[in-house]
Write a structure and sequence with these properties.
Largest sheet: 7 strands, parallel
Strand order of the largest sheet: 3-2-1-4-5-6-7
Structural class: alpha/beta
Number of strands: 12
Order of helices and strands: EHEHHEEHEHEHEHEHEEHEHEHH
Helix content: 40-55%
Shape: globular
Distance between the termini: 13 Å
Radius of gyration: 20 Å
Length: 358
Amino acid sequence: MNEKIGLITFHRSTNFGSCLQAFALYKKIEKMGYPCEIIDYRCPAIEERENLTVPQISLSDPKSVYRRLFIWPTLKKKSDNLEGFLEKNAKISKEYTPETIKLANERYKKFLVGSDIVWGRDITNNDYAYFLDFVSNNHKKYAFSSSVGDYSERGDEGKIGEMLNSFSKIAVREKEATQWVNRISGRRAEWVCDPTMLLTAEEWMKLIPPAKYTDDYVLVYFDSPNHKCLNDAIEYGKEHHKKVFYIDYYRKQSTDVVQQKPTTLNEFLGLIKNANRIFTASYHGMLFSIYFEKQFVFYTRAHKSRVLSLAEKLGVLEQCGDSSNAVPDLDYEIITNKASVFRNKSIESLMEILSDEL
């Protein structure tokens, strides 16, 4: 057993945000002088959800054939690139499964469950490894920037409350999550930032240089369920004579957009960095718009507390386009200051975890 911190999160993904948050938390811990390793835990529900398994083909289902032949190859290239990035830039443990995860107790004394919606039982199919149920009593458990996502009652709140009471410190990503933790466990949870905010925009541009795009365009990243996000972007593009770039890996839905299929983090960050304006229903799309000081409009979809909580903290609730077609321009002097205060307080919280004696 060594003194490395074992970090468990959603690191295997075809989602840029998941990869970026895992890397950011690992990198910040490393920069603060503490040894860390990402636990290569394979949650079956996440493996399937994140398109990490080869999709099955049914000849009676033309959509499954189309997905396997025309969509899967790009998603596979994307996931391979993200996996390769983490393997190159972070220490990753050997592979663990639900059947073998208890063996991780032999390798770490401290366990940290990280960001993303790791406590979303609707996403993990009630995988309690993300509540560190496998950790032995003589080890320490922490949560930093953990997210719940779905707050509906699921009948296991008593069990989760008991697991949370075994944590040495709990810090969560949304305001609503602090209330949820207190309600089911009686514990106080601190509200901290997403791990990507632990690094400054300058650090991001140095660590992952954004690709350059020279077109004059607005960017759509994740459409809202009612398609208002995409439609608003198209209308704005026509009005201001700009192209509309839409990050989408599926069949092109509109001739009014230029479909983009980035497969690397450099391409993804470049599309945000070089855009004239962002229209997004993505949590991390919103965050990186803020880091790069872009004018943006955000929309809500599933697990909307994450974007609304962030908007409240940084004072940008007026940028929500769900029911409005007119949002004000952003004053980044105020926003950047609020983000800096939030970052510094969150770093203090992380330091309390890292420096806690065994």
